[in-house]
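To whoever is on call:

I kicked off a structure prediction for a single chain this morning and the downstream step that reads the tokens threw a length-mismatch warning. I double-checked the sequence; it's 464 residues and nothing unusual in it as far as I can see. Pasting both halves so you can look.
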Amino acid sequence: MSDEGLGQARAKMRDAGVDPVAIDVFEHYYRLVESGETGMIPESTIQPVDIPALDDADIPSPAPTDGLAGTVVIKLNGGLGTSMGLEAAKSLLEVRDGLTFLDIIARQVLWAREEYDVRLPLVFMDSFRTSEDTLEALSGYDLAVPTPGGGGLPLDFLQNKEPKLRSDDLTPVTWEADPDLEWCPPGHGDLYTALRGSGLLDRLIDAGYERAFVSNSDNLGATPDPLVAEWFARSGAPFAIESVRRTPSDRKGGHFARRTSDGRIVLRETAQTLDEDKEALADLSRHRYCSTNNLWFDLRAMREELERREGILGLALIKNVKTVDPADSGSPEVIQIESAMGAAIEVFDGAQLIEVTRSRFLPVKTTNDLLVLRSDCYRLDGGSHLVLEEGLEQVPFVDLDPRFFKLVQRFDERFAEGVPSLRGAEQLLVRGDWTFGAGVTVRGRAELEDPGEPAQVAAGTTVE
């Protein structure tokens, strides 16, 4: 049945106009799933890894701008933020001061162009669901960058899509209630396939660019920085990832390690961790570093490797089992075949890791993160960089009751009169259905217990 399923999947992708190389990449992973491959990385096969710090790099101060001058900024922007109840591009969500992720990203790049006198193209990898809204939202910014011969570079390119597979027979699922839900993105590991298939990789090289800086659009700490760009340019590495020290909030996330069989650096995601290894995954003293998903790669080295492998980098498989309709637990169980772009670190000889400060890793994955970014812990400076307020060394740990705060709409309703002051807080734990009045202040290690019914923190209250 699997050969029949693969044939159906390939035909479905061809009919939808998917790039032929992307179809071949899909087949590569399909065969792995068919053979029983899970993509798991057992703890017994890896060792902890040490990572040098950017602060110790031998770079002049102020950092030269040569590295940044040859860089293109790529933002991964295919997500809808469905886990937060959003139905459009997550990057359209307001972060603070009336500005969305897209507003702040555009302003950061425009500031860097002027400040460092560099071309610095900005390109988004959108999905078929985010492209139109993204381009419309950015239409008010002059982000065009001319190229030799005219024409300029596109503001976005599309990631590929692939069919969700029924878990019982590996055939493409059919869902007449919403045919769009029959498709899924192949994970951000598709970046390299999409860059090559769209022709953008060649266009960037032809326009004189040497390296790419890639990050998630929901990480506003991932700014175009001349110090990091110069470090990567001088390193001679074909590929590198920025890493940070893991904190308690990262216990359930992925981490870097070194494979014992060949000494290669690997990125182990949560979905690649066996149940019996979850305790080791959460051990911050053993696996100390996680990925920011801010990565750098040499454009020519990437093109050469893709050509050598006929477009298939062979990144580690991530097999995600879900339901075809995420909002309907009774809908058919499906397999989504994915890969992570950071997994390319094990593909390239000489790939490197570099430890950066936490200021370059400010992802918004939940409304807990959103509350902190909207609070008085941060401000936007003249370059639209999110910076900690003076005197703060770290932000508080926030955990809001997901029953009432997980979805952005419900979150906004409960903070309609403004978010509380968190500058004096170490943590804020909220259990139950609480609504916050104006001018609330949180101090120390604060916890609101579940009152069992809707309740309100009155305006002007100090929660300690």
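Update from on-call: the warning came from a stale cache, not from the record. Cleared it. Sanity check on the structure: The longest helix spans residues 101-116.
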